[in-house]
Write a structure and sequence with these properties.
- By secondary structure, the protein is α+β, with helices and mostly antiparallel strands.
- It has 2 domains: 1-118, Quinolinate phosphoribosyl transferase, N-terminal domain (Aldehyde Oxidoreductase, domain 3), CATH 3.90.1170.20; 134-189, no CATH class.
- Helices cover 42% and strands 13% of the residues.
- It contains 8 helices and 7 strands; from the N terminus they run H-H-E-E-H-E-E-E-H-H-E-H-E-H-H.
- It has helices at 10-14, 21-32, 61-70, 99-102, 106-130, 148-157, 166-173, 183-188; strands at residues 39-44, 56-57, 76-79, 85-86, 93-98, 136-137, 162-163.
- Strands 1-5-3 form a 3-stranded antiparallel β-sheet. Strands 2-4 form a two-stranded antiparallel ribbon.
- The chain is globular.
Amino acid sequence: MDRLFYTARDEEIINGEATDVYFLRTVEVLKAAGLDKVRVRAEFHVVNLPRNYKWAVFAGLKEVINIAVAKELPITIYAMPEGTLFRANEPIMVIEGNYVDFAVYETTFLGILRHYSSVASKAARIKKLAGDKSCIFFGARVVHPAVQPMVDRASYIGGCDGVAGVIGGARLIGIKPSGTMPPRINDSV
């Protein structure tokens, strides 16, 4: 085995390998048909939100832009700012460019935006219920360690006042991690 964890490496994501195989086939077909210079406008939106929810929080744009910049993709990205509330069928991001230049990233872009926005939206709904009480995200213990910093960032974008994760909080978001002590220790002290 060439890795310890079943997670994509940065370079695999940046190189477009974290994709569905049909996007690779689509690029081959478009190139073979001479359609590799066709410009498109791709709108990203959510068709349905969970039952009884009328809004969600947009998040994940920074990572999408990081990929586009790292690969120097010749595309233009328009998007609402992270942390913006959106409704079903409202465009959250638009990409303009030759489809073959970003087709292999469609799976990655959608996965990033969907996961980030899902966590940010849940955090925002919890913060709304908490009102003016402090809301600290302790979710790192229920996700794979490879995505702990991502869920910390998403929850912070969603409105949590702080996060408990050391990497996500202190190193990547730039805030001091928050927390108390493990419940077992608190009970015995």
